User: What shape does this take?
Amino acid sequence: KAFQKHLTEEQERYSSELSYWKAMNEHLYESLTKKQEQLDEVVQEVKTLKSSNEDQSLEIQNLSNQVASQQSKHVEENFALKSEVDSLSRQLTRLEELKTSLQTERDTHRTLAEESA
Assistant: This one.
């Protein structure tokens, strides 16, 4: 009987420990499942951010190319405008020289006309 009692006590103790470890196992499994779900969410967020960053990088590259193209175009336009301004400046100088020459000629004719009269 004492042995039977001892076996019963041991069985109850093992049963109690088994219940404890089953409960602990379930708790750990639930915790692991929640952590896995959180990890999956973070991985999805990282993928989304990576994709967004790649899209933004492409957009930045495209904008950079457009800016470089516009700068090149503006350099060409500025060079053409400078050439045109230089040409107009030379024409203006010639016209001023011609005007001065004509005024001198007019003054000379006026002086001669006055002296003749």
